[in-house]
Amino acid sequence: MDHLEELESQSVFIFREAYRSFKDLVMLWSIGKDSTVLLWLARKAFFGHVPFPLMHIDTCFKIPKMIEYRDRFALEWKLNLIVGKNETALERKETFPDGNLTRIQCCSSLKSEALKHTLSGEWPRWIINHKTGKYDRHENGKPFTGVIVGARSDEEGSRSKERYFSPRDQHNDWDVGDQPPELWNQFKTDFAPGTHVRIHPLLDWTELNIWEYIDRENIPIVDLYFDHGQGRRYRSLGCSPCTTPVESTAKNTKEIIEELRSGKFANIAERSGRQQDKEDGAGLETLRRSGYM
């Protein structure tokens, strides 16, 4: 068994432990490379079927190709896909692109708040209809308390503080200093009633591992990650007004793998193109403490 097979096996184990331990389970799908590998692993863990819903938080500022990709594979793979958004903020134009919020405030509103209230069922959910190919609006959905996320510990400093099974309070707030120890593959899954738990099957994967696995498994990935002749590609995907591409001529997975192995990005953060991370000293941790992915 090589290293990728070991990582795959561990992730499949985490998926099955989560499904065994938590009744109200949902998986976040951001459309990016990590969460799409996560989706691929979920399908492997349950023999081609994903036995829990997926959730995408749509800020309505995503790059259009991301939404096209999302809808195509939701239908093709017969996924139970839920979309959540902050309707009120969007209608009032309380966003960074509209000039009324900082980037951090916008992320907090369109991502953290939307996620929190969509998980709880307080806000409407749009659920894909496989007969029409459209999304139907639903009110008063059941709350989800177990949330599977594609976070990796090497991607960003705050994510290195996570656990495979990471508790939040009932408001989804994260106490970084109050995380259970996880030693010798022993995981705490029995939490007090009302505890929200984030589950991280990709925690020990690296950016290089992700691309090696995508290449080995031939996983279909949104082509924003590849250069199309302009000498630029996206390394990390987010909202279009706050995400910039990197200089790169990598046109396929093998070229991305070669680029990463060469050390070209060794001293450049993976999320360096995500402008909201640069807006305050704590960066992503500020958002994640209040419920961000």
Task: Characterize the structure shown.
By secondary structure, the chain is of the alpha/beta class. It has 2 domains: 3-177 and 191-205 and 280-288, HUPs (Rossmann fold, 3-Layer(aba) Sandwich), CATH 3.40.50.620; 207-277, no CATH class. It has helices at residues 3-21, 33-45, 64-76, 87-91, 103-120, 207-217, 253-262, 284-288, and strands at 25-28, 54-57, 81-84, 125-128, 135-138, 146-148, 165-168, 196-199, 232-233, 246-247. The strands form 2 sheets. Strands 5-4-3-2-1-6-8-7 form an 8-stranded mixed β-sheet. It has a two-stranded antiparallel sheet with strand order 9-10. Helix 3 links the parallel strand 2 (54-57) and strand 3. The longest helix has 19 residues, at 3-21. It is globular.
Outline the secondary-structure elements.
Blueprint: H1 3-21, E1 25-28, H2 33-45, E2 54-57, H3 64-76, E3 81-84, H4 87-91, H5 103-120, E4 125-128, E5 135-138, E6 146-148, E7 165-168, E8 196-199, H6 207-217, E9 232-233, E10 246-247, H7 253-262, H8 284-288
Parallel strand pairs: 1-2, 1-6, 2-3, 6-8
Antiparallel strand pairs: 3-4, 4-5, 7-8, 9-10
Helix pairs in contact: 1-2, 6-7
Indicate the CATH topology of the largest domain.
Rossmann fold
Q: Which class of secondary structure composition applies to the elements?
A: alpha/beta
Beta strand %: 5-15%
Question: Assembly state here?
Answer: single chain
| Structural domains: how many | 2
Helix content: 25-40%
SSE topology string:
HEHEHEHHEEEEEHEEHH
- Low-confidence stretches are none
Q: Indicate the overall shape.
A: globular
Which strands sit side by side, in order, in the main sheet?
Answer: 5-4-3-2-1-6-8-7
Mean pLDDT: 88
Sheet of most strands: 8 strands, mixed
Radius of gyration: 18 Å
Mind telling me which CATH architecture of the largest domain this is? 3-Layer(aba) Sandwich
Count every helix, treating DSSP H or I runs of 4 or more residues as helices: 8
- Superfamily (CATH H level) name of the largest domain: HUPs
Distance between the termini: 31 Å
What's the CATH class of the largest domain, please?
Alpha Beta
Find the count of extended strands (DSSP E, 2+ residues). Answer: 10
